[in-house]
UniProtKB/TrEMBL annotation:
This protein's record includes keyword Disulfide bond: no
Cofactor: Mg(2+)
Substrates-to-products reaction catalysed: N-acetyl-alpha-D-glucosamine 1-phosphate = N-acetyl-D-glucosamine 6-phosphate
Species in which this protein is naturally found: Ensete ventricosum (Abyssinian banana)
Record-linked InterPro entries: A-D-PHexomutase_a/b/a-I, A-D-PHexomutase_a/b/a-I/II/III, A-D-PHexomutase_CS, AMG1_II, AMG1_III
Start and end residues of each Alpha-D-phosphohexomutase alpha/beta/alpha domain: 93-127
Protein name: Phosphoacetylglucosamine mutase
Pathway annotation from the record: Nucleotide-sugar biosynthesis; UDP-N-acetyl-alpha-D-glucosamine biosynthesis; N-acetyl-alpha-D-glucosamine 1-phosphate from alpha-D-glucosamine 6-phosphate (route I): step 2/2
MF terms in GO: magnesium ion binding; phosphoacetylglucosamine mutase activity
């Protein structure tokens, strides 16, 4: 297996940051195309270098790796074999799809001693669920021979090109956890297994994402360059959870002129420990002032990210003597998005010919753990609210069925999805309004 990259990087990597740590490293590898037997031999050899932890080999009860919401997670020191095997999984997924696959080493909001590995499909979403049983079997294969048998069988079942004719592309990244460096090496090993075979045609390239990429510029163009009104509160204090988000915000705030952003718990040496008494999970569950915040932050809009910056909650500190906070969690963020988008749609299509155009399907997706008051409020607005089992994989899949799908968990993990159909309709509506405006002149 070898890696080669010529396509644009995944959208999540298009933010144009200048890397400052291994967390930003993206790896591309060009190898020699080899036959299927050679591939099997290399896989067998490299897999033998990353044996299962002893407890799994002897089959102790309850000791087993399981593919969760988006990957595997455990105590960082026992994950080396799992991350290596996730690299095999990602390479096979890339060969199957013919596209780049993302592999990230992170444990999100969990303690710094934990770590994990997540795999993302070419669309930026999670790996398809029907591959999860294979992922479980791969992670728990007792030895390299069993692992090879699993791979060979799965390659045949899925009709995956395994002979080296087609190249695989895996984008690697990690967060700031100390265990991440060794785990990254394990993930890289599956890509570099044949590196000793020849030095002539093989090279390892570290690829840094350039500043001011197209996607980043487009995003920044949406931000007002000047203050719209003097009454707009532009001050924002962000808790970076001592993770990857803090450093990125330090860079991003230089580009966003409409907000006065200050960052605490940035992860700099001596400032604190990842997710310890800080971060979105801590703030949302404990509802207390995070570490690093004090009287100077009273009454100011504050926000918390988690360790890998995929959760967001807002809060206010009501007084200098207060330990507790006024929390704006994911349920409230969802409600704000829903109200705002509904209002914009009402304005956008107010004068349109509704008889000739199907209505925009706006869907709100929640789980049984959502705040019941938020559900009742959204239904009173006339919005369609549906429920899924707990887990982002279910929420995201359901939200994608709508023209505009909104989901957020209370922990601040969520997003807004816009379908291609809606975006095409939006462009048509924009042209209609421009034409009407021109005719009125």
């Amino acid at each position: 297996m070898y890696l080669d990259s010529s396509e644009p990087l995944a959208l999540a990597l298009e933010l144009g940051y200048t890397p400052v740590s291994a967390a930003d490293l993206q790896i591309r590898y060009r190898g020699i195309q080899m036959g299927e037997e050679k591939q099997r031999s290399l896989l067998l050899d490299s897999a033998s270098r990353f044996p299962l932890p002893h407890d799994l080999v002897v089959g102790l009860p309850g000791v087993r790796f399981s593919y969760g919401t988006a990957g595997f997670r455990s105590e960082g020191s026992i994950l080396v074999s799992t991350v290596y095997r996730a690299g095999v999984l990602a390479a096979l997924r890339s060969l199957k799809t013919g596209s780049a696959i993302g592999l990230t080493i992170t444990a999100s909001h969990n303690p710094v001693s934990d770590n994990g590995v997540k795999i993302a499909d070419p669309d930026g979403g999670m790996m398809v669920q029907r591959w999860e049983p294979f992922a479980d079997a791969l992670a728990n294969a007792p030895d390299s021979e069993h692992l090879l048998q699993l791979v060979v069988q799965f390659v045949e079942e899925e009709n995956i090109p395994f002979g080296g004719v087609q190249s695989a592309e895996v984008l690697l990244g990690r967060d700031t956890r100390p265990s991440g460096e060794a785990l990254l090496e394990a993930a890289k090993h599956v890509c570099l297994a044949e590196r000793l075979m020849s030095n002539l045609e093989k090279r390892l390239t570290y690829c840094w994402i350039k500043n001011h990429c197209f996607g980043c510029r487009c995003l920044m163009n949406l931000v007002p360059r000047e203050r719209i009104t003097d009454s707009l509160d532009t001050e924002l204090v962000v808790d970076g959870a001592n993770g990857v988000g803090g450093d990125k915000l330090e860079q991003l705030k230089k580009m966003v002129t409409g907000l006065d952003i200050s960052v605490k718990n940035t992860g700099k040496k001596g400032e604190g420990v990842l997710n310890e008494n800080c971060g979105a999970d801590y703030v949302q569950k404990e509802k207390v002032v995070p570490s690093g915040f004090g009287p100077e932050d009273v009454g100011i809009r504050c926000a918390s990210l988690d360790g890998d910056a995929d959760r967001l909650v807002y809060f206010l500190i009501p007084s200098a003597s207060s330990v507790n906070i006024d929390l704006i969690d994911g349920d409230k963020i969802l409600s704000l998005f829903a109200v705002f988008i509904k209002e914009q749609l009402d304005v956008l299509y107010k004068d349109s010919d509704s008889n000739n155009k199907p209505p925009v399907r706006l869907g709100i997706v929640q789980t049984a753990y959502a705040n019941g008051a938020s559900t009742a409020y959204l239904k009173r607005l006339g919005l369609e609210v549906v429920f899924t089992p707990t887990g982002v994989k279910y929420l995201h899949k359901k939200a994608a069925e709508y023209d505009i799908g909104i989901y957020f968990e209370a922990n601040g993990h969520g997003t807004v999805l816009f379908s291609e159909n809606f975006l095409s309709g939006l462009e048509c509506r924009s042209n209609e309004l421009a034409s009407a405006s021109s005719d009125s002149l």
